[in-house]
Automatic annotation (TrEMBL):
Native species: Allopontixanthobacter confluentis
Protein name: Porin
Organism domain of life: Bacteria
Pfam assignment, any one: Gcw_chp
Keywords linked to the UniProt accession: Signal
Signal peptide location: 1-26
Xref: InterPro entries: CHP02001
């Protein structure tokens, strides 16, 4: 994230084309071309897994991917996963997200996305780690610029210490005319359990750029960070970092 999500960015994870998606189904299972069902997928290799500015891979490279199944009506289901640093983070070695929702245009240049996501940690140690979050966002498009504003709410759960968590964010992407480059920015704010601050409130941010480099391959770079309070000598999960990501969508 914590934010698979994120982030990561929740808006990018739940876009219609599903940026957080992987290996497509076998060819013999693919729907016919006139089907109302679309399967999309992606894989990624990133220098760090940052979820809402928080380092969930212990500063190490993470392998990620998932797939989405979308109906013409806008309803979709999907899953996405990432490797974690088992020793540093404490959630085990794998994060698996399962989600479903609806997305579609509600006016010219305006789209909406609503749904629910479960964050699962299948090989975590003893204790409660899995949690559920509800999300919604609005996307705006004007020429080469796209903006998203959204909110995610995780109700009270044992895995959140018996409390809840609210996350609000905005994302911005501007394509540079005549180039394959898009400049991106993100600002988020967390109020609740999923922070590393003493008062359970934290901002996170990123600024970067991404470009299509060959076929389905995209290369991105971002400067990412978040607020955090740490005891001397403790691992800094929110220290600012430059994150490189190579991804492919299918």
């Amino acid at each position: 994230m914590l934010t698979s999500i994120r982030g990561i960015v929740a808006a990018s994870i739940f876009s219609t084309t599903a940026l957080c998606a992987v290996p497509a189904f076998a060819q013999d299972a693919a729907p016919p071309s006139d089907s109302s069902i679309t399967v999309s997928a992606n894989v990624a290799l990133t220098s760090e897994y940052r979820f809402r500015g928080v380092d969930l891979s212990g500063g190490d490279i993470a392998v990620q991917g998932g797939f989405d199944v979308t109906h013409d009506s806008g309803f979709y289901v999907g899953t996405w996963g990432s490797s974690l640093d088992e020793d540093t983070v404490g959630y085990g070695a794998i994060e698996l997200d399962v989600y479903g929702g609806w997305t579609g245009n509600i006016a010219e240049g305006l789209s909406a996305d609503v749904g629910v996501i479960g964050y699962l940690y299948p090989n975590a140690g003893p204790g409660d780690f899995d949690y559920i979050e509800f999300y919604s966002s609005l996307g705006f498009t004007l020429g080469p610029a796209e903006a998203t504003v959204g909110v995610a709410y995780a109700p009270e759960q044992d895995s959140l210490g018996g409390t809840d968590n609210v996350y609000v964010y905005t994302d911005l992407g501007v394509g540079i005319p005549g180039t394959p480059v898009t400049v991106t920015g993100h600002l988020g704010y967390t109020d609740g359990f999923l922070t590393y601050t003493d008062d359970s409130k934290a901002f996170d941010w990123s600024i970067g750029a991404e470009a299509a480099i060959y076929g389905p391959l995209t290369l991105g770079v971002a400067y990412v960070g978040a607020e955090g309070d740490y005891a001397p000598g403790a691992y800094d999960f929110t220290d600012d970092a430059i994150v490189l990501t190579l991804s492919a969508s299918f």
